[in-house]
Write a structure and sequence with these properties.
FAD/NAD(P)-binding domain, seven-stranded mixed sheet, 18 strands, binds flavin-adenine dinucleotide, Rossmann fold, 2 domains, binds NADP nicotinamide-adenine-dinucleotide phosphate
Length: 454
């Protein structure tokens, strides 16, 4: 008689939106499957915790909902403070699990490659975002807001987040779960004007209409548009693009009431260099023309008009980038693990038992919900392969990998530990009239997680 096959045992690496969606999808699709979810940070959530801006906290709820669904299955375990490439190797995973899904996101910043980029006062938006959200790796950074004007280079939603965080009245920020160190630093900020620089035109901007609209309601902030917006928005454009242009058009011609702070959206401008001796004092801008890129799109080409804009602070917000993971294929030009609908693609074909989802699979684009569809596609592939995966059970299927990591002295945060952190952050928040006071120090996070049941 044939021995019954062991239920599918899957490791997921990365507890951001993509990893969490893949977890719940897998548990839903296979009523016997077991999932161990690992993250290099003590806390789950990925960018939902450390990217989504503090004034948009309601959007973070999705992470808690997905966790609750996973825990309710009784077939899920979370292990924080365990990094693939540090504590976990590919051999470990292959020996203990039928399959592994990599959902490690894209955490690096992209560089402009212009002179002056490394001057003090010039920062990556990725660092600023992590800093104001108490990401343990960014908490020690310093940002100097002792200047009147800041520039943000890039025209995506992250650029709008960065600008908003510098312009929101401090009393509003105080009602959020922004990191304590960021609240302190921003409370003495002298920044009164933020200029967002888009290299292409209003029609090509990446930010979305709801996020743009939100800028028009910031208390004490006048919004100005510097760019050519057509009077008649072509009906042939996609609805989202039309709406964005309509809002920009209205803002362009609206007479703003005087306000203590200004936000200026300037289009068709590229930074050629950041200027200054000891720190950034200005950015040299070139005005771009928009030309056909020969592939059905529009590209920016530098013209001859150059100007200097005095600024004391510059953020480059030109997208995120994933980095290669040990022993996994990586497409450096696209910044993704090559894959076919979620199955990892090696040089010699598909790699048995390895899958990807989220930003490391498709690149750094899309909102939280986009990862649901992305995870579903990956889980579809894994479920289609389930028969062949179970037919070749891993060598150490019946040994517990997290248990052996713990025996090696690795301070793992399990789901109870994370709940303990969550509870303490909320309690500290309640005591000071805030929704949560985030803990940024990894050591403190680990100590709290280890301190007893929630
Ligand atoms: C600043 C910012 C703000 C955003 N705001 C919004 C918003 O308001 N609304 C919205 O819908 N979308 C928003 N998004 C988009 C959304 O956050 C992403 O679509 C989503 O987080 C991508 O999910 P992911 O799981 O692929 O990556 P991530 O969320 O980055 O998760 C990856 C996880 O993998 C872990 N990890 C990385 N390397 C390893 C390793 N070697 N070993 C173990 N674990 C590892 C990381 O710690 C992280 O937890 C925002 C994005 C950014 C950058
Ligand atoms: N509230 C929200 O829902 C929210 C908040 C934050 C992020 N997100 C999502 O997260 C994803 C990532 O956002 P993102 O803003 O980092 O990326 P993004 O949407 O890809 O925007 C990147 C921007 O950088 C510009 N850029 C790239 N290279 C440049 C260069 N060398 N010089 C000047 N500009 C350059 C791009 O311009 P070109 O188009 O000309 O290349 C684009 O405007 C997006 O899908 C976004 O919607 C959502």
């Amino acid at each position: 008689m044939k021995a019954p096959s062991h239920p599918l045992k899957v490791a997921i690496i990365g507890a951001g939106a993509a990893g969490l969606y893949a977890t719940t999808e897998l548990l839903r699709r296979d009523a016997c499957a077991r999932v161990d979810l690992f993250d290099r940070l003590p806390t789950p959530g990925g960018l939902v915790r450390s990217g989504v801006s503090p004034d948009h906290a309601a959007r973070r709820e999705v992470s808690a909902v997905l966790e609750r669904m996973a825990v309710a299955s009784g077939r899920f375990r979370y292990f924080g403070n365990v990094a693939y490439g540090r504590e976990l190797t590919l051999d470990d995973l292959r020996r203990h699990y039928h399959a592994t899904i990599f959902a490690c996101g894209a955490v690096e910043d992209r560089r402009l490659g212009i002179p002056g980029e490394d001057l003090p006062g010039s920062h990556a938006a990725t660092h600023f975002v992590g800093w104001y959200n108490a990401h343990p790796d960014q908490a020690e950074r310093r940002f100097d807001f002792d200047c009147e004007r800041a520039a943000v280079i890039g025209n995506g939603n992250v650029a709008l987040d960065v600008a908003r965080m510098m312009l929101l009245p401090i009393d509003l920020l105080r009602q959020t779960d922004i990191a304590d160190h960021a609240l302190d630093a921003l409370s003495t900020s002298r920044v009164r004007e933020v200029v967002i620089l888009g290299r292409r035109g209003p029609a090509q901007a990446s930010f979305t209409a709801p996020e743009l609209l939100e800028l028009t309601h910031l208390p004490g902030v006048a919004v100005e548009i510097d760019g050519v917006i057509p009077d008649d928005v072509p009906a042939s454009l996609p609805a989202s693009q039309r709406l964005r242009l309509q809002i920009l058009h209205e803002l362009r011609w609206r007479r703003s009431a005087p306000a203590p702070r200004r936000l200026i959206l300037r289009f068709q401008r590229s930074a050629e260099a950041l200027l200054g001796e000891d720190r950034v004092v200005a950015v040299r801008l070139v005005e771009n023309r928009l030309v056909d890129d020969g592939r059905g799109g529009i590209k920016a080409e530098p013209g001859s008009t150059v100007e200097t804009l005095e600024v004391g602070l510059v953020f480059r917000s030109i997208g995120y980038r994933a980095s290669a993971l040990p022993r996994l294929p990586f497409d450096d030009s696209r910044g993704v693990i090559p894959n076919q609908a979620g199955r990892v693609q090696g040089e010699d074909g598909l790699v048995q038992g390895l899958y990807v989802t989220g930003w490391i699979k498709r690149g750094p684009n899309g909102v939280i919900g986009s990862n649901r569809f992305c995870a579903r596609e990956t889980v579809d592939a894994l479920m289609a392969d389930a028969g062949s995966l179970k037919a070749r059970p891993p060598m150490d299927l019946h040994n517990d990998l997290p248990g052996s990591l713990q025996r090696r002295g690795i301070g793992i945060t399990d789901h109870r530990g994370w709940q303990q952190i969550d509870r303490i952050e909320r309690e500290r928040g309640l005591a000071s009239g805030r929704p949560r006071r985030r803990i940024a120090a990894r050591r403190e996070l680990l100590a709290i997680a280890a301190s007893g049941p929630a």
